[in-house]
Amino acid sequence: MSVLHLTGPVLARLDSSGEVEVRDQAWVLDGRITFDRPSSAGSTEGVEVLDGWVLPGLVDAHSHVGLGPAGPVDEATARRQAETDRDAGALLLRDAGSPADTRWMDDDDAMPRVLRAGRHVARSRRYLRGVGEEVEPDDLVAAVSAQARAGDGWVKIVGDWIDRTTGDLAPCWPVEELTRAVEAAHALGARVAVHTFSEQTLPDLLAAGVDCWEHATGLDGETAAAAAAAGVAITPTLVNTARFLEFAAAGAPKFPTYAAHMRALHARRSQAVRDAVDAGVRLLVGTDAGTEMPHGLVADEVAALVGAGLTPLQALSAASWGSRAYLGASALEEGAPADLLVLPADPREDVEVLRAPRAVVLRGRAVAPRG
Ligand SMILES: [Zn+2]
């Protein structure tokens, strides 16, 4: 049996006080991590050595696999999307809504691990065409329940979108219906992630008990404090909200109020992330890959979070240890699946090293760099 020797240091996990537990070295045996030198590692025969800083595999907590600019894509395209994320180090994807059936990936050891939210649940004519399950408020509970059964412990609801009758962003759901839908998802063992751009929606998300806010550009100090107190997690997707000026320009001729709103949200988006950090909100790294956004941008999002004011350690936690724990995945513990990156330098010093891993190891096998 072949053994992988990780000569370290190994940034294994966060301890209960939030400090990184650093191990000198580790081994991979049968796809799993061990900190006890295997007896078969005594000789150099059959032992492959990977030298460098070891970090648990990155998380993209807001990705869409199987979704392209024109809706669902074929299997070969979905595979390329997942491989692109994987080779960039994102070994655990929370799929934040996709109309494509990507279950086949679960049986393919070369694919990153995917936690699905089923299809987006959206208000009729209030989302990208052909992507979501579109319903009116009376059918929200039923639609959310169906997607909770179809997913992997998550449901995705589109919480606000442009209302063409008023020409501005507006919440999509009455708070009573949203609350009932969240209760229904929770009763089925699923957590709820909600797409939100607007300030106006956040009090409803709080009242309804939504677990995770996606984008959350409407955040300020007050809503951030309330989110922190309620244990809400936030996925800022800065690489995507950078495009708000494009959305504004496209909407401006017909919807000038919406365009002005999007410009204002764009101007405040880094401050919104700082408000979240200052309030102690749990942040998740997510790129919004799919539709218009390319896959493979996980290191860009980590860098963007540092650019917005997170420390490298905070951004790394959002990309790895912290998000893995939040999503129920292990870090590098004895016996844990060997999903990890080997880096040329300490990422706590400079997150830019995430862009060029020496190796990406998935299920104990080096899958990248390729070629
Ligand atoms: Zn998305």
What is the mean pLDDT?
95
Please indicate the count of domains. 2
Distance between the termini: 25 Å
Helix content estimate: 25-40%
What is the CATH homology-level superfamily of the largest domain?
Metal-dependent hydrolases
CATH class of the largest domain: Alpha Beta
Helix count from the secondary structure assignment = 12
Strands of the largest sheet, in order across it?
15-18-19-20-21
Rounded to an integer in angstroms, the radius of gyration calculated over CA atoms is 21 Å
Protein name: Imidazolonepropionase-like amidohydrolase
Keywords: Hydrolase
Organism: Quadrisphaera granulorum
Domain Amidohydrolase-related: 53-366
Features:
single chain, 371 residues, alpha/beta, Urease, subunit C, domain 1, TIM Barrel, 2 domains, five-stranded parallel beta sheet, four-stranded mixed beta sheet, 12 helices, globular, binds zinc ion, hydrolase
